Structure prediction request, 540 residues.
Amino acid sequence: MDDRDDIRSSISSVLPELPGSILNIVEETLQSLGVETIDDFQFVQEADLLCVLRPIQARKLVASWKQTCKYNSIEIPLHNQISQGPGIQSQPDVNPSTSSSLLTSPTSSRSSLSPCPSPRIQLNADWVDRFESPTERFPEALMQCLERGKRPVPSLRREMIRIVATEMMKACPSPTKHASTEVAKKLVGKYPQSLKDVIEGEVVGTGYHSLVKQLQARIDNKKRHATPRIKKRKSLSDNSDTDEVPAVMKASVQDTYGCVKWDMKLMPVTETLESQNEKKEKMKILWEQGTFNPDEVKELMETTYYSQRKAINNGTALQTLREEWPFLFHEIGISAQYQELTGLPLTETFLKSVGKKGKPLLNFMATVCANKTRRVFETLTKLKFQRGQLEGCSDDVKDMVLLLLSYFNEDEATLFHYTEETNQAADIQVDCLPVTPCIIVCGASCYSANRFMLSIDGKIVNDKIVQFIAAINVMFGSYYCLNIHYPVKLRSTLEFLQRYVCVVLLIQDGTSMCSVERRFALPPSSVQSMEEMPGHASTP
Prediction:
């Protein structure tokens, strides 16, 4: 058995239930850290594994490896002392009685026989706690901003990132994300007014997320040529068929961050399969009748959430979902499903964020973006003409969404499909609709329309939406509730709405935070705008 097999078997022996795909990722992560033999396990820390394992799983592995290394460090010196001949000057004479007592009670002599860790290892273990950012190397203009509590311009912030990342890599050649988080936390704690992620007085997430991302990106760039290549997984053959992938596996790689109950393992104790089916049939009857109590439907949707998620995550076809769960495409059903899924009330969260951040965002677009980008200026002029004298939250939301599409230079036709005001669902040319959720506007513009529809997968699933805000909420909620990825043509706009308006952030559950964050990171254009807006909003 070679070293690779030894490493793999040592992981499997501690975590026998670990899926093969996760086992491969853990193995590759260890190789990227420099683990070549099982003796290197003693230098692995829990934080090194949190990007691929749950906290408890990581602790089990590290604890088991450390215990194994301790026993090995006892047995090896004892074996050498007994087996080596008299020609070795550095080994003291050991009589049989002494060696026998030592072998029978290793714990009594562990402290005297185990090798002492080198100063280098001890330095790497606690360097983060003793690390201080080299503020003396910061440019004078940057220090002026930090000391006066002003936000530095992007160029100074990037220079600070370069200096801090370089100093971190002097202390540790390969800093982990945990180390970047601790360093960022210290920096933000020292200069909160200048570095904390704040929008309109409200802290965004942890307050230091953007700084962590920048530090880790800089470190990854510097390590690009020094990091050993990870052995690539076998690619699929040309004859492989993607349809052979189980539906549940397809669903498991969807956008899960921000979700607190994406996949329920167990049915609620108050429910049975019979009760779930009875409630599902009751909702079908209510849908066919056309008259129903919204509170009753909401309660039924909440109590059958387990069955809904199983159907969705198993890859059930859209048409089947519409037949089995008709309210899942109605505003009531989408809102109930979304709240169970993310822990946030969809409409209430959206309206609260728009009321607090909508005006500053529109002001930012009108005073900063319009002066920088001709495209945004032209869109702003057109929207003023279309809106006329209309006032209200709904019209502000229309401005906000349309201006964001223009700011990120993304395709409006992928989000909005305009049709005649009198057209019904049967009159819509579905061949022109995108496969991702799309709002059908029954009118010449969003401002003049009084009726909206929602299409998914080129099929109209809801043709009775009377408010623009309801249409936006149903559209956005369907991405989460139905495991749909953001399209490339709308990625920045939807990701910005998700974080800035709907306040859906990463759930730090150990397993998902790091791996999902890499797969669904905020696009660079969104990151830049998020960094610019707090500075603009905080300017007196």
Notes: The radius of gyration is 29 Å.
